[in-house]
C-alpha cells in the first residue's frame, strides 16, 4: 500500500500528527483507568437496564436506567457496585431528574449527597446535582 492509500483508508491516524495523537492517547490510557464505562443488564434476550459513566475532570455517572419490572431486585445496586469499583477512589458526580424521587432515594442510600441548586439540563430537564466521595478505608 502506498502512503496515499493508507491515508485514504485510515485517515489522519496515518499522518505524523495522527501518530503523535495516538501515542499520547495510549500513554494517558496506561496512566489512568479507561475513560468510559458501560454495562447492560439482560433478562434473556431483553435489555432491562444499563449504567454508563466516564472520566472527565472527575468521574461522571450517567445515564443509569432500569425498566420498572427490573427495579427492586438489587440489579441497580449491583451495577452501581461495579461502577464504584471501576471508578476507584474518585469523587463521582451525577445529575438526576429532580422529579424522580425513587432515583434520588436510591442515590442517597448509596452515599450520594445533593450538592447544589437545580438546573435545566440541555435547557429542558430540571436536574439535581449529586456527588459521592470515595469511602475512606477503615483503619482500626
Automatic annotation (TrEMBL):
It comes from the Bacteria. Residues 1-135 form the N-acetyltransferase domain. This is GNAT family N-acetyltransferase. It comes from Streptomyces tubbatahanensis. The lineage of its organism: Bacteria, Bacillati, Actinomycetota, Actinomycetes, Kitasatosporales.
Amino acid at each position: 500500500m502506498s502512503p496515499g492509500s493508507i491515508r485514504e483508508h485510515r485517515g489522519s491516524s496515518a499522518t505524523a500528527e495522527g501518530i503523535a495523537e495516538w501515542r499520547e492517547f495510549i500513554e494517558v490510557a496506561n496512566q489512568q483507568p479507561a475513560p468510559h464505562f458501560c454495562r447492560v443488564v439482560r433478562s434473556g434476550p431483553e435489555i432491562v437496564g444499563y449504567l454508563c459513566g466516564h472520566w472527565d475532570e472527575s468521574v461522571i455517572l450517567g445515564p443509569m436506567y432500569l425498566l420498572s419490572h427490573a427495579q427492586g431486585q438489587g440489579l441497580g445496586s449491583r451495577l452501581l457496585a461495579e461502577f464504584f469499583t471501576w471508578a476507584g477512589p474518585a469523587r463521582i458526580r451525577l445529575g438526576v431528574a429532580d422529579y424522580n424521587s425513587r432515583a434520588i432515594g436510591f442515590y442517597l442510600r448509596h452515599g450520594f449527597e445533593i450538592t447544589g441548586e437545580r438546573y435545566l439540563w440541555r435547557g429542558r430537564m430540571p436536574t439535581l446535582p449529586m456527588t459521592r466521595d470515595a469511602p475512606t478505608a477503615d483503619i482500626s
